[in-house]
UniProtKB/TrEMBL annotation:
The keyword Nuclease does not apply. Residues 1-24 form the signal peptide. Belongs to the UPF0065 (bug) family. It comes from Neoroseomonas soli. Keywords: Signal. InterPro entries: BUG, Bug_dom1. It comes from the Bacteria. This is Tripartite tricarboxylate transporter substrate binding protein. Pfam families: TctC.
Amino acid sequence: MTLIARRAALAGLGTLLAAPALRAQGWQPTRPIRIIVTYPPGGVNDIVARIIAEPLSRELHQPVVIENRAGAGGNIGTQAAAQADADGYTILFGTTALFGVNPIVYASSGVDAVRDFTSLGLIGEVANVLSVIPGRVQATNLQGFIEEAKRRPLIFGSVGNGSSSHLSCAVFMKMAGIEATHVPYRGSSPLVAALLAKEVDFGFDTTATSTAHIRSGAFRALAVTTTTRASALPDVPTMQEGGLAGYDLGIWFNLAVPKRTPAPVVARLREALAATRTQQTADRLRTAFVEPMNVPAAESDAWIAASAARWQTIAREARITAD
């Protein structure tokens, strides 16, 4: 996936806010729909899923409930969604990690999100932030931190083994030529708690869950993982600005259903998701530090497959494993 293609997906809201197409015929839900979120409550996945669930429920005239199925870097929830009846009543909240990393990390699981799911549409993108803990780390910029990491052993936390948080750090360490001990947690909330308790020296987590602690001074932000600075943290440089040329790892979110879901059901759910793309929803996403994405639903499977291929290459090169 090229940088131009990904940025084009984020450009403007003209099409994003356009009136939805005529209502798809042939399927209307008659009972509650669940969205499986593969991480615990409180993290960015859970936050974004709940933002989307509210207008989706209004559009479908049925309750849309969030079911948190955490574990194995999101693989447990992905398996549950893949094995659910393909009737439109179970939706997977997809992430970069589930589609781009887990097929490598959990190769024997029997689940490959690109192969096994049909995308209903992309929702948005967020940056991860490299945050260090004042008192445990002295460095105030990326190059200083790299030098410090080369002088003494450090411990980093992630939101789970094989997660985009883990991979962001693995790529960083490889490019910087440093090593650190990895402590995986079960989602963003446990990682943030560990950072606040000063159990680890540093970690990568999204702007959605890191910004408040950075602004308070509890975390010291050294860099963001995208090629442009995060609007919520305009003073924090990118990894590339910090000296790591070519570093670009934005985190995206989508909704998906099992591949065998009937076409009329997919069409109706895609239409409903498109109808949630209002200015109000965009504003709520931005409040959660997520930039809305504008990729037509019919093109989202190809977009995701290209992005996943890139992430899988990175995962292989970083030698990410489930152990």
